[in-house]
Records
---
Amino acid sequence: MSHPVKPNSRKYKVGLIQMRMTPDPEANLESALKFVREAAQRGANVICLPELFQAQYFCQREDTQLFDLAEPIPGPTTARIAEVARETRTVVIASLFERRAAGLYHNTAVTFHTDGSVASVYRKMHIPDDPLYYEKYYFTPGDRGFQAVDTAFGNIGTLVCWDQWYPEGARLTALQGAEALFYPTAIGWHPAEKEEFGTAQYDAWQTIQRSHAIANGVYVAGINRVGHEQGDIRGNRADGQGIEFWGGSFLADPFGRIIAKASHDSEEILIGEIDPGLLEDTRRNWPFLRDRRIDAYGKINQRFLDAGSSLPELK
């Protein structure tokens, strides 16, 4: 007996590029474009680069000269990535330091269609400010909202690094039809903390993203960099011990199972398959979207719900 074809059942492959960054931004861009071509040769249809792949992670210090790394979108780098997307007939996700205007900068992920045109421009919504992650100095929070976009292969959503800790962003992107969420990332260990906290930190990072996959019935990809960095840009580096970026890029399926995972210390291209049919099956058997109590979530847009709600409102 034949079985009916499920809706949206066409499979496609993703390529997750885990790479090491040098002090030379041009060399990093050339390396990234080479990785994109290799991923395409290996059958990837949608290819994602790590967060801010053109430079070592410069947010380890506050330095006005580092704003010179930013460029407009569209600009010279988007033109080169668009050319490779068109050449390889792939969808490419690239995380860039965007100069929107004088004194106004964003941490931005651009998705390119297979013809090189821009499919979406997503500006990182959640901006951290932690030791060696001084991003609030450089980046204005995003103002374009959470986005899902139809591509030649499927509907995908892109968020960036610190966004990955927030279930609200994943939910709002999935509710727009995204089958897969991509998180370009730059995250690692403080060397002095690694022995005591390193395993738990990586486990938490992976677990929260797997939970997004489960709660929303979508694929989730975390794409990280590797290597020890001190934010070295053309020979100028930050003080201190730097950050050991932990790699460990992965792809999880709609039930949170890890179907591809990279090492913690090597450059790699992960190839994984997106199967919309599996997404359909998972959601039919675990219908979390069906059972959401959207009538009861009205207060989710408040910062915090103070105890004793009957008390007079504080001014």
Note: The domain at 12-291 is CATH 3.60.110.10 (Nitrilase/N-carbamoyl-D-aminoacid amidohydrolase).
---
Amino acid sequence: MDAETPAPARARIPGPSRTDLKITTLAERPELTAGFWALGDAWPTFVVEDPIGWILWGRIVSELPEHVLVATDADGQLVARALSVPFALHAKGRGALPDGGWDRVLMWAFSDRRHGVEPDTVSAIEVTVAPGAQGGGLSYAMLGAMRDRARAAGFDTLVAPVRPSAKHLEPRTPMAEYARRVRPDGLPHDPWLRVHVRAGGVVEAVAPTSMTVSGTLDEWRTWTGLPFDEPGPVDVPRALAPVHCDPDQNHAVYVEPNVWVRHAL
């Protein structure tokens, strides 16, 4: 995998200065909960059909508000959010970042919570910027705030099952190949991976089964507007890998790979 030399743990997050930005936890500002949901999301329609996310994503907001960051501008408008979960990476039977990526770390986090297992690591889950506020460096700021909050809570590691932002442009490229690709300056080719590395993260591994979405062919037609009438791989807009279509069995399955990035805090 990527062998980038990490930046210092307290590296400054690049991007424009936002002195008007106020970032807090949702636990500190519960009155922003309604606006949090109104912010929407940037996920493709089919991604929100992932059953693990469907069941557990909302529980982060209700049960772990101290791990939900909200950002408001000078007018008090909610412009960005970031979610993370604490989990026990070094619990018995674990240790390595899971191949199951986003789905698996959500399952671990809420299983640990249910069984009273002490967490030792924080995983980023999502960063969303309001459409009208995109392009102003807010994603950088939210990642930096997520790192700072995890450190302040006593954790020394933040990990992230990153969904590379430009991978959808070449869905048939293996993720392992894509994740290793760097620019002449040594930084990752992918913009979102580059944000993480500039912030002090290290690309560690591919999570080949980070998210799985299955559905009938009619469901996939509804989600994508594509015919799904031929067997084999189907390139779907904004998917990071092809969707596998099986007309004889009347289903299609999407298995999304992500990239694990580790931040030492």
Note: DSSP finds seven helices and nine strands in the chain.
